[in-house]
Amino acid sequence: MLALVVSPLAAQRLPMRAGPGAQRNRQELEQRIRARFAQMIKQRLGLDDETASALDSTVQAFRPEREQLARDQEALRKRVQAFNIEGNGSDPEAQQLLDRMSELRQRENQLYQSEQDSLRKVLSPSQLLRFNLMRDQLAQRIQQLRMGGMMGGGRGLRGRGGGDGGGGIPQALGGGLPGLDPPLWGWSGMP
Known about the structure:
Number of helices: 5
Shape: globular
C-alpha cells in the first residue's frame, strides 16, 4: 500500500475528542486515506504492482526525514509566534530565528530534490508530474477543509453532524469528511 501523503505527525494534529480511542481513530483514518490515495495513484498513473511497490518504497525511504523536518518547522513556527506575542524579543534572538528559517528552507529544498531524483528512477517524467500534482491537490483540499472549520464555514474539521472526525475520508479522496493537516510544504503530501 502506498503511504504517500499522511504522516503520523499530521495525524497527531487531528482535532479529535480526547479519550482512549482518539489515537486509534487517527490511525484508522490515516490508514483509510493512505489506502484510497494509493488506489488513486495506481489507477491514475497506470502503475503495475511492481512499480507501485517501488514507488511506495521510495516514498517511505524519505518519510523519516520529512517527518523530522515537519517537527522542526512546527517548533520554529511556535518560537516565532512566541517571539511575536511577547513583543520584547531582541535582535539577536530574531536573527537566530531568521537563520533557523533559512536553514530549514535549505533542508526542505534539498529533501525535495533528493526525493524527486529518487522518484525519477521509478516514474516517468509525466507520471512524476501527475503524482506531484495529485499530492499538492490533496494537500490543498485538506487545507481548505481545515480553514473552513476554523472560519466557521463549510463542514470544517468535524465533518457532518459534528462527529469526532474519524469516520470518513476527505472529499479529495472520494469521501466526505476532512481530517488531516497538509504537508508543511506543497510538494509532499503528507506526510
